[in-house]
Design goal:
0% strand; single chain; 43% helix; 4 helices; mainly alpha; rod-shaped; 123 residues
């Protein structure tokens, strides 16, 4: 049995990234930080699969629309009840809740109040 000897040289080629002390091909690679995503499928997958993302989106919207509003300043208290009943009939709070959730999930949303017979292109 013979002796095992290690041999080495000091060859370095920085352009080819060969040799001791030279970087590898990933040495200067970096990942940029992009925390905003406009990828609808990715956002929906996160919302459906992560309870944390679901809570971030849902809690604020649910808290904002849970009790509705109290109308003050009306001359007749029955008018306030009529307005509340009409808002319930039109499902205003549920639809507003959905708009807020979409806004929080996708980064923006708009709720448009439509009036029967009015052209959408005119203000």
């Amino acid at each position: 049995m013979g002796l095992i000897k290690f041999t080495k040289d000091s060859f370095q080629n920085f352009a080819a990234r060969v040799g001791l002390g030279t970087g590898n091909q990933h040495d200067q690679s970096v990942y940029g930080f992009n925390f905003l995503s406009r990828d609808r499928l990715k956002l929906e997958a996160m919302y459906r699969s992560s309870w944390v993302v679901g809570q971030v989106v849902d809690v604020v919207a649910d808290d904002m629309t849970r009790k509705g509003v109290k109308l003050n300043g009306l001359s007749d208290p029955k008018e306030s009840e009529k307005i509340d009943q009409e808002m319930d009939r039109l499902q205003v709070w549920g639809r507003l809740n959905k708009s807020i959730k979409w806004s929080r999930l996708y980064g923006g949303a708009i709720a448009v109040m439509m009036i029967d017979g009015q052209n959408v292109s005119t203000p």
